[in-house]
Structure of Sorting nexin-13-like isoform X1:
Amino acid sequence: MSPTSNALLWLLLGVSLFFVTFGEYAIFIGLCGLAFLAGTLVIIYNFGKQATELDMPEISLVVGQLGHGGIEKVKSAMEPTTKIKNFDKRMTGASVIDDVLKEVLQFAVKDYIKTWYRQISDHDSFLVDIWQCVQKVIITFSNRSKEIDWMPYFTQQLVDDFASHIRLYRRAAEKTGTAKTEDNAIALENAFFDMEVEMENNMCRDLVCLDPQAERQYLQDLSEVLLYLLLPKEDFHNKPFRYIVREVLVNGIFMPTIDLLSDPDYINQYIVWMCYETSFTRETFLTVIRCSDCMEELEAVKEMVDSDIAKWRSKDTGGSDDTTIKQNLNSLMFLKNACEMRMRRLKSGPVSADQIIEPENLRNLYVLSLDEIFSNNFALQSFIEYVTSRNGQQYLYFYLNVEGFRAAAEQQISEMQKQSLTSVTSLEPDLEPLRNAAKIIFDQYLSEKATSRLKIEPEFIKDAVQKLKSKMLSEDTFDLVQARVYQILHMSYYEDFLQSTSYQKLLGELGLNSTSAKAEEGDNLSYRSIEDDGAAAGSECSMGSTEDLLDPQLEDIGSDTVSIGSGSSATSVGSPSADAYMQVTVTNSGVLTEKNGKSYAIFFITVKKKDPYSEQEDGWDVYRRYSDFHDLHMILTEKFPELVIPSLPSKTIVKNMSESFLEKRRKDLDKYLRYLMKPDLIQNVSGLEDLMNHFLHNSVWEKHKSEFSRKMDTIVHPLKKGIGDGLGKVFTQRNIDQSKSREIMNQMKVGAGLDPEAGENIPLRIMLLMMDEVFDLRHKNQWLRRRIVAILRQLIKATFGDKINRKIVEHVDLMTSAEQMAEYILAFKNSFWPNGVLAEPRQPRDEATKMRTKVLCKAKMLGSVPDEVRTLMGTDAVRMGVARVFQMFQHKTLNKRILYVVLEGVLVTLFPDNKFQAIFRKLHSRSKRAEKVLEAQKAGTSQDSQLRKRQLKR
């Protein structure tokens, strides 16, 4: 049977069963069903007809536009869109920051998200979610930052961390030697991290700095913690999103940033940028060349010099510029010879500290008197070390103690005399404290039971005993004994000291070596045109591709220079014109000796002046001392702080009356006056002309020393000013105890060894921390260190210490203010997106350019050290300290270490309640060095417990 017949049979069967079931009601039920179906169809028809009549115009318009891009318009009309501008965009609460930050986020979204997201979807909802998430993170971070006081971190902890980093490097360098090869560098880094375990209390960052995989794992763990603190809960619990953000932070932000900031070449460029242009001088540049121990640096400088020589020779065709060209060629040839000489020295063998001084012979050495040695800290330190090596330190310490006693006694007795004159009733002066101090000195050096008894004749000791028993104690109690000790020091130690290598080294450090003085004089004559004409040469005389090794600010000083072989002819400067002019020339120098035998140098100034509408020229001679020029310089610095004044020739540590030195100083002072008498400078700076006329007037120059200058003078002769502070100190050398305590202090952080008083004074704390580690002050003689610390404390207190504190606080507040933060973000935006376009990747710099940048960096760092610090610490100590800091920055792994220390310190300060210290200690616990120390400690504690148990059993 066919399917149709089967369906009919089933239909008939159903109808039959329907009628059989419902009987007479079957027809009624069937009619109701048909009526319901018909009504439904009628309603659907009417509703569809009405809807079609209403929408017909729009449908017709859309259908008519199908041939003119209508499909795209329909598609865009149907897409659900959400505009970013529909929600609040405020983030930090400071509009000056938010405006710049929005631009940065917009650029970041454009260049790092839309580039790949638009290939997947055109919906903006994802971008809105990303923006809102970043906004919440910034809001949380900014609110957290506003509650933090950054002052203790920036003025205490940060300085302490950096100084401790220098201490670790210094100790590692002393242990392994100077790191010149790759093997030595690896040994230095290993020694550095071995010592870090001791300093950081069993915590070491070696894995983070040496192993890239461990560094990535550390940053991933740290990012997880930061995301937990900053992300909203719903975003943090979204694991795929959290992992993506973590990897972006680690591989896209943290690691590239740390890699860039730890790059030695980047640090060198940054230091060059930070240092003032005036810090680069010909003296510092030549010092760096002569002391360089890197052959690649010298070759790079020589290569650039050869290129400049070829360029200047191509211009040597005669004409009006012939003199300038020859001067530049002479200067460049001199610089080339200096590089070649140093390269030959390096090829001949390793360079020692004695070779750097380069004493060719022992004849014609400058002789320092014993009194001059006592009056200079650095010379005294060298003499103390020499006398100690011969076991005669008790004589020297006795002499210094008596000097302190005399200074304190004179002051105390004079004060008592003033009180007795002003008081109505006659009071007997209380000399008991002074007598006790004298007894301490006597018991220490002169009594029979003295541990440091002096071997001198008994009659001298009897005289001191009689004066001690006298009712009226005076400052001359130990005069006879001190005079005898002075004879012993002079005959037994001083004369031998003059023949020692220590004295030769001291003269080199003080710049008093006769051979070096002659070389310096020749350098100034032949190298002068580099200073005067370097700016005119422009980029052609530059020693690097990005930085000029010459000082551009010296171009304006003048072009009339002294060429080789021109002698010492003086130059005249001023403002000559047809109507009026004033010419000033430092013509000569001489030495004036007074009746009391005191001598000093004077400089003769010839002044020629023609007033307006006058036919006659007036002229006169003026003589001035160097101290007069120094006084003028300090007045100019205070009265005209915005005026760029050339540096004055630095003070000498001891008097130098040699003809070559005075001639060099005369030329420098002549150049100094020429700059100050420039016509445009006189006209533009109000009050400068009157001051210069007063200085150049033919009369006695009245001292107008500024307050700052008077305070700085305490540095020149600190022994006389502050020796009384050490009264009653015991100078007995306890070598074993000192070495043990010094070793213990070296294993601690720098801040742990500071006095509480020093820790409260921000400037003093910073200066002491830096001087201790940069100049290795802790390893110097403790008497000298106490003197320097006392001088620094007096200097800072005298120089308005409270105002300095306030200025530091104000500076930190300024650097963390909203306006300054906006400047940081703006600088980042301009460097990352110049003109709104993503910057191209940095082009790698060639090795020669990097080497020249290193030379420039060292020269600027050395030139940035003030002359007062050189006078206080010594030239060689300053040079070695600067070299130590520079060499420390040449190790990328060590740079990473200090960056992670700073990062951890910032996070600990930012989140003080989240136990970040414990988190960092746990993250760094993977280090094998830390594990070995912990295992050794556990073994030691177990052995101690076993010994205790055995003792209890006994």
Notes: The CA atoms of residues 610 and 617 lie 5 Å apart.
